[in-house]
Amino acid sequence: MKQLFAEKGSVSLDIPNIYGDLEYLDFLIPAVIALTIFMGSVATTGSAIAGEKEDGTIVRILMTPVSRRSVILGKTIYQLILQLARAVVLILAAYFLVGFHMNGSWLLVALVLIIFTLGGVGMGIVMSTRADDMESFFQINMLVTLPSMFVTGVFFPLSSVPDWMRYIAYLMPLTYANDAMRTIMVKGQGLSAISTDLIILSLFALVTFTAGVHLFRREA
Q1: How confident is the model at residue 4 (pLDDT cuts 50, 70, 90)?
Q2: Distance of CA 46 to CAs 32, 54, 178, 204, Å?
Q3: Residue 101 to residues 17, 24, 33, 41, 50: CA-CA distances in angstroms?
Q4: What does the pLDDT average to over 123-151?
Q5: In which band, very low, low, confident or very high, does the pLDDT at 1 lie, cut at 50, 70 and 90?
Q6: Does position 62 have pLDDT exceeding 80, yes or no?
Q7: Which of helix, strand or coil describes residue 104?
Q8: Residue 189: inside a domain, yes or no?
C-alpha cells in the first residue's frame, strides 16, 4: 500500500502498525499457553483424584486426621506452582526458539493464569467425582475439554468462523483466557483492557471450584 501511494506526484502515506509486525506465531503462542494450562490443570488434578479413588489411596488419606479441605488445598497449591512454572518455561522457550517477545506485564499474565488454573482445578475435581477410575475420567475429560481446542480461537481468529461457532466459543472460558493473554502479551495493554475477561474467568473459577469442593467433600 505504501508503494501505491509513493509514486511520483502522489502523497506519501505512512501507515503505522500499532502492534508491530504481528505474525501468526505472535497470535498463536499466548493462546497455546492458555490451552496448555487449562488442559494441564484439569487433567492432572482430575486424574490424580480418579487414580486415588481407583487404587483406594483416597480412602486411606481421608482416614487420617487430614481434613478434606486440606487435601484440596494441597492439590490446588501444587497446581498453581506447576502451571505457573509451565507457563514461564513456555514463554522462555518461545523467546529463545522463535523470537517471541512479550510486550505486557508478567504480573498480569500470572493473575490470568492463577484464576484460570483455579477454574481448571475445580473442573478437574468435578469430573473426577463423576468418574470411578482413570479410564472413565479421561473419557469425560476428552469429551469436555477437547472441543475447547478447536472452537475458542486458539488457532484462528473468531472473526473468521461462522456465527454459530462463535456463539459456542463465547460459552467457553478458554475463549476469554485466550483474549486476555493476547491482549497482555501481544498488545501490551493493562488491567482495564482485560477487565471483562477477568470477571468472566473469575466467575468460572468461583463456580467450578466451589462445585468441586462441595462434590469432593460429599463423595469422598
Answers
A1: very low
A2: 21, 12, 23, 17
A3: 16, 13, 14, 25, 39
A4: 89
A5: very low
A6: no
A7: coil
A8: yes
Is residue 7 in a domain?
no
Distance of CA 124 to the CA centre of its chain: 13
When divided into structural domains, the chain yields a total of: 1
Q: How far apart are CA 133 and CA 131, in angstroms?
A: 6
Identify the domain containing residue 193 by its residue range.
24-219
Question: Rounded mean pLDDT of the chain?
Answer: 86
Distance CA 220, CA 60 (A): 11
**Cα(26)–Cα(14) distance, integer angstroms:** 23
**Residue bearing cell 502492534:** 19
With a CB cutoff of 8 Å and minimum separation 6, the contacts of 64 are none
- Give the pLDDT mean for 133-140: 89
Contact between 111 and 198 under an 8 Å Cβ cutoff? The reply is: yes
pLDDT number for residue 195 = 96
Q: Give yes or no for a contact between 33 and 181, defined as CB atoms under 8 angstroms apart.
A: yes
Region for 162 from its dihedrals, namely left if φ exceeds 0, alpha if ψ lies in -120 to 50, beta otherwise: beta
Q: Residue 88: inside a domain, yes or no?
A: yes
Longest dimension (CA), the chain: 86
Residue at 11 is within a domain: no
- pLDDT score, position 23: 82
- The reported pLDDT for the residue numbered 220 is 61
